[in-house]
Design brief:
By secondary structure, this protein is α/β, with parallel strands linked by helices. Helix content is 43%, strand content 18%. It contains 11 helices and 12 strands. The strands form 3 sheets. It has a 6-stranded parallel sheet with strand order 6-11-10-9-8-7. Strands 3-5-1-12 form a 4-stranded antiparallel sheet, covered by helices on one side. Strand 8, helix 8 (209-218) and strand 9 (222-226) form a beta-alpha-beta unit.
């Protein structure tokens, strides 16, 4: 699996355009007409972003950046960095400065924090579910929000998971549609091997044992065992042995993951982590004057 970023903190070169675009989307042509009408321009505020539910935090740097881009005089102190486990009532960020600017950045900061912390929390739940049942790592997929892939994959890492390929460009993954169009497993793998550079990994997706046997007879770096029941998955793992990385996918939840991990697979991938994980409920509370 590709661990392109070695840190939970992404480079500002990646994050600033995303956060800036989100702020511009919210401000539109006329800005925050509510705060401009209600809040005196000289008003200052002190507040905190606080956890309402237990979970794992991700997106802290993005929230800080939202406030900074709004007004460089806003002071932000981090209490819970990415990867931290929080309980209800825990302060994640303390924010102080011009009230209008804080309120202007509030929703973008919370949208990013809640979304990414939800992904990190869901990942951590799967990681804990499989921990006693083998060595399998939890991985995400390319089923990400367009434009937010780097952020969502960082959130998976914050939750203790691993990243699958980042795009179509960094690994060959021969899926069922490739096989159908190419005319079979053997043809698809042979063509991939002829085209791949020496540093490019080749993985093939199979959902039947006869396909697996064909793939193993040629040789691949990894096999994606898709939607197999536990007995079939167990036999597939036995047949692969140590000849390839063993990845399982399909119907992965905190309830099903332990049994999948117990078969001996190396990777368990779940697309829902990045496309439909529930948010972590966080809120911005203004300190009493």
């Amino acid at each position: 699996m590709n661990e392109t970023f070695s840190s939970l903190t992404l480079p500002r070169l990646i994050t600033e355009p995303i956060v800036r675009a989100a702020l511009l989307e919210d401000f539109g042509r006329t800005g925050d007409i509510t705060s401009d009408a209600v809040i005196p321009i000289e008003a200052m505020a002190e507040c905190a972003i606080v956890a309402r539910d237990p979970g794992v935090v991700s997106g802290v740097d993005l929230a800080c950046l939202a406030f900074s881009l709004m007004d460089r005089s806003i002071a932000v102190s981090v209490h819970q960095p990415d990867g931290s486990k929080v309980a209800p009532g825990d302060t994640i960020l303390h924010v102080s400065g011009p009230a209008r600017a804080i309120l202007g950045a509030e929703r973008v900061a919370l949208n990013l924090l809640c979304r990414l912390s939800g992904i990190a929390t869901a990942t951590a739940e799967l990681v804990e579910a499989v921990r006693p049942h083998g060595h399998a790592r939890i991985a995400c997929t390319r089923k990400t929000t367009p434009g937010l892939r780097a952020l969502e994959k960082a959130a998976v890492r914050a939750g203790g998971g691993a990243n699958h390929r980042f795009g179509l460009y960094d690994a060959i993954l021969i899926k069922d549609n490739h096989i159908a169009i190419a005319g079979g497993v053997r043809t698809a793998i042979e063509r991939a091997r002829a085209a791949a550079g020496h540093l490019v990994k080749i993985e093939v997706e199979v959902d039947r044992l006869d396909q697996l046997d064909e793939a193993l007879s040629i040789g691949v770096d990894a096999v994606l065992l898709d939607n197999m029941d536990i007995p079939t998955l167990t036999e597939a793992v036995r047949r692969i042995g140590t000849s390839a990385i063993k990845e399982a996918s399909g119907r992965v939840t905190a309830k099903t993951a332990p049994a999948i991990a117990a078969t001996g697979v190396d990777i368990i991938s779940a697309g829902w982590l990045t496309h439909s994980a529930p948010i972590l409920d966080l809120g911005l509370d203004i300190a009493a004057p």
